[in-house]
């Protein structure tokens, strides 16, 4: 393919030399990869990578989501009254302050994961915040919780961005959507049972003089520490690190080299380039990177609005009992998993992203008015099912959308940090959407979430046409995408 007559305005600033032939099954490199192992052996290697990387990361994600949102369960279990948090914005401030440090620390913590390795950083930060969560159970003032959640934001910043980054480095672009979905599905299902666990821990009320809501934090902190210890023994390193120093009972060097060859044939970026600020910041010039980030911001605003307030909505607005409000949080998130898996299968099979994203937005736009404006509580709860399922299905899809449309390790690190950071800012706005003064129906909050979902639908539709236009220019030799004449966007 000709790459002459390229105008600098139409060309990605960073140009990386290709190590192999054209991307795809017709390339010479891909033929060499396929002949190294039998098809059964290749499938076994890929399964081993999937089973070693995805489940433990999903388990740690579930603990992360549970630990950042367990304040909602503690709130209806008596914490708001004991710590005088029904005044003004105290509860909203306590939930949202987490995201201040979470946003600020995304980039440095993602860089630290690349520098020290995921097996050290990821379980390490999970272990540290498990100890911190236990400390939540001994807080005597709401301001103490604010300080603890600021520290929690620093630690959790080291997990989510690093975990997403690790997933991207082990799988080809055609595999990312289903692996991101399984990763997020495991996390969402585990975190969805936080209400049921919280209700169980509440029954310890009075044991050793500790209140029920305090036991929620103490017991969940202990579970977090146990998961972190398991993560240290299960998580692998990055592929370029594994091939030189294999992890215990994982891949042999030749098997790891097979995975690396697959990644090289797919996008040729398995190994980190020498760090340079110009290289790291190059993606900041591309509009699609910020479009992904803005869509993540809007989606996370909607998602966190329900994470932080769904138990309160069920209790105060829909008038369910305390036990029902704790337990009815789980079913919508569990149901979201089925939609996630269906979307991931379709997106990977047909190599598309944005149309599925827009489809989910349409489902959410049906459910959200039911939540906000129906009179029957069970109809409103049905709307919660639609809204929660569709909104949460878009989160792993957006991760895959971005990951399949970037190339290069340091650029991947920048884009992951940017997208996660903007998603965290969405967490701040999401924690402020359902205001205390709008109880019990929270109509302004529902309208805000509807607007966010509408923005995602519009931007997703726009990106379809923009990325197809870029691919057409590349086919005509008028543009080189990410420094590779063979690279094409996945609209």
Automatic annotation (TrEMBL):
Pfam families: MFS_1 (PF07690)
Segments passing through the bilayer: 49-66, 89-108, 120-139, 145-168, 180-201, 213-235, 289-314, 320-347, 354-375, 381-401, 413-434, 446-467
Domain Major facilitator superfamily (MFS) profile, first and last residues per copy: 53-472
Domain of life: Eukaryota
One GO term describing the cellular component: membrane
Keywords in alphabetical order: Membrane, Transmembrane, Transmembrane helix, Transport
The keyword Nucleus is assigned to this record: no
An example Gene Ontology molecular-function term: transmembrane transporter activity
Cell location: Membrane
UniProt xrefs under PROSITE patterns: MFS (PS50850)
Alphabetical list of Gene3D superfamilies matching this protein: MFS general substrate transporter like domains
Protein topology in the membrane: Multi-pass membrane protein
Main location: membrane
Signal peptide region: none
Protein name: MFS general substrate transporter
